[in-house]
Amino acid sequence: MTSPRGFYDGIAERYHLLYADWEASVARQAAALDGVLRRALGPGPKDVLDCACGIGTQAVGLAALGHRVVATDVSPAAAVRASREARNRDLGLPCAAADMRALPVRSGRFDAVVCADNSLPHLLTAEDVRAALASMRRVLVPGGLLVVTTRPYDELLRDRPTATPVHASAGPGGRAVSFQLWDWHDDGEHYDLELFQLAPADGRWSTSVHRTTYWALGRDRLAGFAADAGFTDAVWHEPADTGFFQPLLTARAGWRSPTVTAAVVG
Q1: With bands split at pLDDT 50, 70 and 90, how would you rate the model's confidence at 256?
Q2: In total, how many domains does the chain have?
Q3: Which residues of 106-119 are buried (b: 16+ CB within 10 A; e: fewer)?
Q4: Residue 261 lies in a domain
Q5: Residue 183 belongs to what domain range?
Q6: Which residues contact 35 (CB under 8 A, 6 or more apart)?
Q7: Mean pLDDT, rounded, for 52-60
Q8: Same structural domain for residues 183 and 142?
Q9: What are the residue ranges of helices labelled H in 89-211?
Q10: Residue 207: which CATH number?
Q11: Which tens digit of pLDDT belongs to each residue from 74-117?
């Protein structure tokens, strides 16, 4: 299977085609996350790290709403595109390639860390998940907010689907047909994903296939990992309550002093 970096490097220039209307999704997701931030942290712009920014789906929208956002992603190609999308909108959005397990940001820098769109489950071991959450905890101010969104894995672990519905995009960003095949491992928790995307090129339809692996982290387990990393007050929120398209976990950075240091970005 391809590493997360290779997976997202490979689809960075066509990632928007996974949405029926990417621009509308940027605005809609930002509005939902802005509501989460305001309810937890109060009104006004916040210092936010999007540590799995992809091509900027959440970071660009939050920056457009006035938040002071820094964006990182394990995929250099995705981070480059996020920076380009921000420049095209005259937004200040520092972007860098970085592994969420070792964020190159000084301790206590941010009011909130966002890790959205099922990014954390790319980490396949408890050690790696704990390392990423500890890294996010370190860069938050005491009492700062963690926001993680994932697929609804408690439901998916019951059913273990092997495919997703076919999705068609025909918006201003281009035309494409996309779907996924899932191959569950024997442990019943990890699965290999194959993303098929058909898009027109030079008058013909071309097919690309991109592969990666996920860990289907249920809610209790993920909340437990957050507690191990020093977070408190973990709460899961439903899409109907937040307006975000995935289940959303919030938690607070505990008040113990971080002990890990890292280089500074942003």
Answers
A1: low
A2: 2
A3: bbebbbbbbbbbbb
A4: no
A5: 155-215
A6: 242, 243
A7: 98
A8: no
A9: 126-139, 153-159
A10: 2.20.25
A11: 999 999 999 999 999 999 999 999 999 999 999 999 999 999 99
